Amino acid sequence: MLVLLFFIIAFHITSSALLFIATIDNTWWVGEDFFADVWRVCVNTTNCTEINENFEDYSIMQAVQASMILSTILCCIAFVIFLLQLFRLKQGERFILTATIQLMSCLCVMIGAAIYTDRREDFHRTNLVYLQTSEGRYGYSFILAWVAFAFTLVSSLMYTVLRKRK
Q: Where is the secretion signal located (predicted)?
């Protein structure tokens, strides 16, 4: 039982770390001489511009920012609630509250990554015209966001199945 508990805690911490990295790091969309994320666009790794109201379709990036931040916060809250339930739940009860919050985190990261996947091309085409290149590829932070989606989904399923034992 102790090994299973350690595995679940390690899995949840890994999910949280993936969400933090995906939300904070600046490599959602990369090209030869630029990289961009949901917070800023950097050209030649020195000239960085914050994404603000001056950008077209700024509301798209605000939605992605909000959902990624919310997913990270919910994942951390789920971990705290899991630890509290670990000591407060009666034997045989399930970690339903933790599973529900972790599932909400999963949905938030899915929404943020899906919006970015769908609207990225329009956003970068209209706002990165000064780079004179539209070629680029998804960066590792974008990929980590989708991996974090899978991890939080599996984690919520584990909490749904898990019962408190002695």
A: 1-16
Q: Work out the number of other CB atoms within 10 angstroms of the CB of residue 40.
A: 13
- Evaluated on CA atoms 3, 71, 64, 117, the torsion sign reads positive
Instruction: Give the 3-state secondary structure of residue 23.
Output: helix
The side-by-side arrangement of strands in the sheet containing 137-138 is 47-50, 40-43, 34-36, 29-30, 137-138
Mean pLDDT of the chain: 86
Taking the model in full, what pTM does it have? Answer: 0.87
Instruction: Identify each DSSP E strand in the chain by its residue range.
Output: 29-30, 34-36, 40-43, 47-50, 137-138
Amino acid at 42: C
- Residue 129: pLDDT above 80? no
Top CATH class, 2-161: mainly alpha
The pLDDT tens digits of the residues spanning 70-98 come to 999 999 999 999 999 988 888 878 889 99
The per-residue DSSP string of 53-84 comes to TTSTTHHHHHHHHHHHHHHHHHHHHHHHHHHH
Residue boundaries of the structural domains of the chain: 2-161
Dihedral sign of CA atoms 63, 117, 72, 99 in order: positive
Strand 47-50 to 40-43 pairing: antiparallel
How far is residue 62's CA from residue 32's CA, in Å, rounded to a whole number? 26
